[in-house]
Amino acid sequence: MLAAILVGLAVKTPTVPFHTWLPPAHTDAPATGSAVLAGVLLKMGTYGFVRIAMPILPEAWRAWAWVIVVVGIVSVLYGAFVALAQTNLKRMIAYTSVNHMGYIVLALGAVGLIAGDTAQARSVAVTGAVVQMVSHGLIAAALFLLAGVMRTRAGTYDMGAYGGLATPAPRFAALFAIAAFASLGLPGLSGFIAEFQIFAGSIAVAPVTAIALPGILVTAALFLLALQRVFTGPTQGQSPGFADLHGRELWSIGPLLALSLLIGVLPQLLLGVIEPASAALVDLVGR
To answer: Coil, strand or helix: which one is 158?
Structure first.
């Protein structure tokens, strides 16, 4: 029964190898559709793990814990490396979603590894996973809306078609940089809070989960490379005449990044809500 639930939720999340529907869906969808898909709908998969699979079938979850951890590690690394190879900005962001959902699956799998006095560490891992759900929802939605601006202005997501975009569109460049830094886990933004807790809890429970740490480095590399390709250097390709963000776009994207900054600076506002439920879930799984 747990296997059936896991497969269904893994498709929704998505994790490797059930992720293949996500990049084409994002690439073909309008920006607003991608923002809703990444910001809300993907979290229904990971939320299902926390609210359905783990509390209802705790013994089975413990038995399958290592399988879930391995799937999480593979999703983290695969998503990051494949995203690094993309030239289409929207497909790149889609594969980073596979990477970030892998962090959540990794942490939730670690909760089932009952060994010694690790309840506190497992609670930290669950808390990090839930924070990642919130954080990724904000950041990915902002990134997809920004990618949609590029498609609206110039008709393409191809990063090679741009260059020096920061000159004609400084507000666009600034918001994209903030979103990229949040996604790669820069301290002071919500992505750092989530990933720090995920790895602090998971590594304390199972040190082998440190294998997934290079995913953070690769994510940093791919976003820095995207920033270099699109926004730096001489203005060329589709960049000349590119109109900067107007009021409606700023009011759509700005609050998402402001919330990411708020969580990064004052994480206790969110952690105070999540931590009691995390402790209860860890207790349920450990029975």
So the answer is: strand
Distance between CA 178 and CA 285 in Å, rounded?
Answer: 37
What b/e string do you get for 86-124 counting C-beta neighbours within 10 Å, with b at 16 or more? bebbbbbbbbbbbbbbbbbbbbbbbbbbbeeebbebbbb
Pick the closest to residue 268 from 197, 213, 200 (CA basis): 197
Residue 206 and residue 231: Cα distance in Å, rounded?
Answer: 40
Q: At what angle do helices 268-286 and 119-154 cross, to 10 degrees?
A: 130
**What is the average per-residue pLDDT within 1-11?**
92
Structure confidence at residue 29 as a pLDDT band (50, 70, 90): confident
**Share in percent of the chain as helix, strand, coil (round to 5):** 80, 0, 20
Query: For the chain, how many residues are written?
Result: 287
What is the tally of helices (H) and strands (E) in the chain? 14, 0
Cβ neighbours for 171, distance < 8 A, ≥ 6 positions apart = 244, 245, 250
CA 221, 224, 227, 230 torsion: positive or negative?
A: negative
CA distance 90 to 267: 29
The pLDDT assigned to 211 comes to 93
Give bridge partners of residue 88 from the DSSP assignment. Answer: 158
Q: Is 171 exposed, middle or buried (0-12, 13-18, 19+ CB in 10 A)?
A: middle
- Alpha carbon of residue 286 to chain centroid: 27
pLDDT tens profile 101-155: 999 999 999 998 887 678 888 999 999 999 999 999 999 999 999 999 998 888 8
Q: Distance between CA atoms of 27 and 23, rounded to whole angstroms?
A: 6
What H or E segment, with its residue span, contains residue 217?
helix 214-231
pLDDT in tens, 200-252: 999 999 899 999 999 999 999 999 999 999 999 889 888 888 888 898 999 99
